[in-house]
Structures are given as structure tokens and as C-alpha cells.
Specification:
Keywords: Coiled coil. The chain contains eleven helices and six strands. The protein is mainly α and 361 residues long.
């Protein structure tokens, strides 16, 4: 109230307009948020740079690991080569052996069966051919038994010529030298006997006869084969074996068969023999004692199934059905794959297959 007795109206702030102190508070809060945002931006930028640096380090580490792996592979290859040995797994050998068995069965079915095969003069000059097609036996066999006999004979040839052979892959060396130096004088002439391969085979037999340590012979054999591989000589063993198989079964190929079918047969035989040779070389490049095995025919005495049951299975009965099987083995259909490391008792990896004789009542 003023001196005149009237009350003085005090001024009131208008509604909707913030106090000065409130405006100051909001500005301070905004400035604080701006400072906080700037700080977060700095932290984000630092984290981003740190991430990029970590990614570069990771990439460098991955490249280093890759480089070390390549160096390790190189050193491993050098060590294995210096050691003269090649690690081969059971699975690898079993797979190759099974493939060979299936290919043999498939090939045996490609030959046309003929009750009266036509033997030329050159076939009649070979005792093994006339014996195989002996009319007293061949003519009495059913088509099923003829097919089984063909299959067994294919394996027998592979077994004798390749699967138990002391192969080094140098039987084509003289031919290779002649091709490299056609008409090149004495050095360009091929030795028809092929002295290197049989010479190495005789030397390996000599080492065994002299009771040289088994590991020493293995190291020598593997190193020699490795050196032979580096010569890149085309082996001739599979080619010669394929020619022998084709010659034996030529009497079954009638004139009605066209050249396409004949070429299919030739290609299948050649591929089979190459696979057999590759399998044999794989086994000989290992120290694990891989070997093929078949029932041996003793003079005048047949083997029994019961005494060989642990490593062979009966697949058929010659001239009859399985219910009429005897215990006597007629012949080996396909051999077994065994593993005899360090001269110990063998482990059967794949059983052999045999055909039994019909039971006599």
C-alpha cells in the first residue's frame, strides 16, 4: 500500500513464458548433451579406427598362417621325399582294390559267351589257351559258369603279371630312350630285353636272399621307384598284360561283333590293367606290407574252404547251386587284400572270393 492509501499492483509474469532461470537451465542441459555427443563421437571414431587396425592385424595374421601352412607343406614334402616313404592309408588301398574287383567283374560281362569258340592257329600254339577252352570243360559249362571262369582268369593274369610283381615302372625305359633319340646311333637303339627292370627285380631278390634288413630294402625300393617316376618313363607292364588278356579271349569275339564293341573291350581291358598297375605301385611305395593273396593250387590237392574261411568267402558253386556246395575250392574268383606290416601276422582288409566244387553224393 502506497502513502496515498492505495494498494500498488505488483507485476506478475505472463503465462507460457519460462522464467529466466529455466531458460538458463535448458541451455546448460543442451550444452551438456552437445558435449556428451561430441565425446561419444570421439569414442566412436576411436573405436572405428581400432576396429580397422584389428582387421588389418587379423588379415596380416591370416596371411602369415597361410604362408606358414605353405611352408609346412613344402617342408613335409621335402621330409617325406628325403625319408623315401609315402604314407598310404588303408582306406586308399581298399578303395583302389574294390574298384579293381568291380571293374574285373564288369569286364567279364562284356565278352560274348560262345559254346564253340573259334581258335586260330596262333591260339592253338599256346597251351594255356587250348587248356582254357578245353571242350570237355568249356562246352559243358553254363553261361553263368563261363562268365565266372572268364572273371577268374582275368584276375589270375592280373595277379601273375602285375599284382604280385616286383614292379619299378622302368620296363619301358629302353623304348623311351629310342623315341627320344630316333636314329641316334647306338644310344638310340632299344634293348629288346629291357635290362633295367628285370635287373632291378633280380637285385631286390638278391637283397632278400642275403637277409638284408627289411627296412633297408624298403627304403631302397621306394627311393628307386621315386627316381623312376622322375624319369617320366611310360611303363609297359599294363600294356603287355592287356595284350595277353585280349589274346586269350579273342576266340570268344565272333565276326558279328562290330569294331565299336571291340574297341570298347580293348579300352576296358587297358584301363583295368592300368588300374592294377597303379594299385601295385601304391602298395610297393608303402612300408605297411600291403599284398594280394589267392588260394594256391597244390599239385593234385585242392584247398578247403574251412581251412581258409578267415580270408575267403564262397561266391558260387561250379555247375550247381549254393545248396549243393562242398568244402573244396574249385578256383579263386578274385583274391584277397591283406596287410602284413613288419613281417607280423597279416590283417585281412578285403576277403578273397572263391568258387566251390559241387558236392558229390
Amino acid at each position: 500500500m502506497c502513502q496515498s492509501g492505495h494498494y500498488r499492483r505488483t507485476s506478475q509474469p505472463s503465462r507460457g513464458s519460462p522464467r529466466l532461470s529455466d531458460r538458463c537451465g535448458l541451455m546448460d542441459e543442451r550444452n551438456a548433451l552437445a558435449d556428451q555427443n561430441d565425446g561419444l563421437q570421439l569414442e566412436l571414431g576411436s573405436a572405428h579406427r581400432q576396429l580397422q587396425n584389428t582387421e588389418r592385424q587379423l588379415q596380416a595374421a591370416e596371411e602369415q598362417v597361410k604362408k606358414l601352412r605353405q611352408e609346412a607343406a613344402t617342408f613335409r614334402s621335402i621330409i617325406l621325399e628325403e625319408a623315401g616313404t609315402q604314407k598310404v592309408s588303408d582306406e586308399e588301398v581298399v578303395s583302389s582294390f574294390s574298384k579293381l574287383r568291380q571293374a574285373t567283374q564288369k569286364l567279364s560281362r562284356l565278352f560274348p559267351l560262345n559254346d564253340k569258340p573259334s581258335l586260330s592257329d596262333k591260339h592253338q600254339e599256346r597251351a594255356e589257351v587250348t587248356e582254357f577252352y578245353n571242350p570237355a570243360r568249356w562246352g559243358s559249362l553254363s553261361t553263368k559258369d563261363q562268365g565266372l571262369l572268364i572273371r577268374a582268369k582275368i584276375f589270375e593274369i592280373l595277379y601273375d603279371r602285375i599284382l604280385v610283381g616286383a614292379c619299378f615302372g622302368l620296363d619301358g625305359f629302353e623304348k623311351s630312350m629310342a623315341l627320344e633319340r630316333p636314329g641316334g646311333g647306338r644310344e638310340g637303339k632299344r634293348d629288346p630285353q629291357g635290362t633295367i627292370e628285370p635287373g632291378l627285380q633280380r637285385f631286390e631278390r638278391l637283397l632278400k636272399e642275403k637277409n638284408i634288413r627289411k627296412s633297408t630294402i624298403e627304403d631302397w625300393r621306394i627311393t628307386t621307384i621315386r627316381c623312376a617316376e622322375k624319369c617320366q618313363v611310360k611303363e609297359e607292364t599294363s600294356k603287355a598284360t592287356a595284350s595277353e588278356i585280349l589274346f586269350l579271349f579273342e576266340p570268344l569275339i565272333s565276326k558279328q561283333i562290330g569294331p565299336t564293341e571291340v574297341q570298347t573291350l580293348r579300352s576296358a581291358i587297358t584301363e583295368l590293367c592300368r588300374d592294377a598297375f597303379d594299385l601295385r605301385m601304391t602298395m610297393r611305395m608303402s612300408k605297411e606290407g600291403y599284398a594280394c593273396k589267392m588260394v594256391n593250387k597244390k599239385s593234385g590237392q585242392r584247398q578247403s574252404l574251412s581251412s581258409n574261411k578267415y580270408w575267403v568267402d564262397a561266391m558260387a558253386v561250379e555247375g550247381s547251386k549254393n545248396s549243393e556246395a562242398s568244402d573244396e575250392i574249385a578256383y579263386t574268383l578274385f583274391g584277397a587284400l591283406v596287410k602284413c606290416p613288419d613281417g607280423r601276422d597279416g590283417k585281412v582288409l578285403e576277403k578273397g572270393q572263391v568258387v566251390l566244387i559241387r558236392k558229390q553224393y
